[in-house]
Amino acid sequence: xxxxxxxxxxxxxxxxxxxxxxxxxxxxxxxxxxxxxxxxxxxxxxxxxxxxxxxxxxxxxxxxxxxxxxxxxxxxxxxx
Length: 80
Known about the structure:
It contains two helices and two strands. With 80 residues, the chain is an alpha+beta fold. It has a domain at 3-57. The N and C termini lie far apart (29 Å).
């Protein structure tokens, strides 16, 4: 795992992750908990039970500036 990703991953408060509109409770946190090595593994997955939007609150124990964020999805008819 690259050093920066490892450092930030260690700072996540996993038990306090909140995902709104998730179809399966806890699936948003499960996706975030995946380590660097499993980042391309399609499971677990999170999907919305209300609309195409998922809102995630991911708390960290430190303050930092985030300049970019990358999210990936499987190619499917339901993906924008």
